[in-house]
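INTERNAL AUDIT FORM
Audit reference: QA-55
Scope: verify that the stored structure record matches its stored sequence.
Auditor: D.O.
Record contents follow.
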Amino acid sequence: MRVVLRTGRVGRVAGRPRYRQAVLNVATLTIGRGADQLIQIPDARLAIAHATIEQRDGGLHLRVLVDEPVAVNERPQTKATLRRGHVAPRLADR
């Protein structure tokens, strides 16, 4: 799957926000605080390997690898099919 990651805004060009971005071509996107994760988030609330996102059956599928759910569209979940317009997963409120 082709993933475009955008990080913090770095300025404006022609009145539009400009972001840093990286393009990844991967089968599985791994998320956690471990150094081997494709998306590494330095937050003690995340597990070393916290979640994965895979493309299959025509959709993107989030799977949480630990007991701590993530919030997708403000609903704590341990698995979800992500669709266009869904709010990016974030740590569920404790």
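Auditor finding: record pair retrieved intact. Residues 33 and 85 are 26 Å apart (CA to CA).
Action required: none
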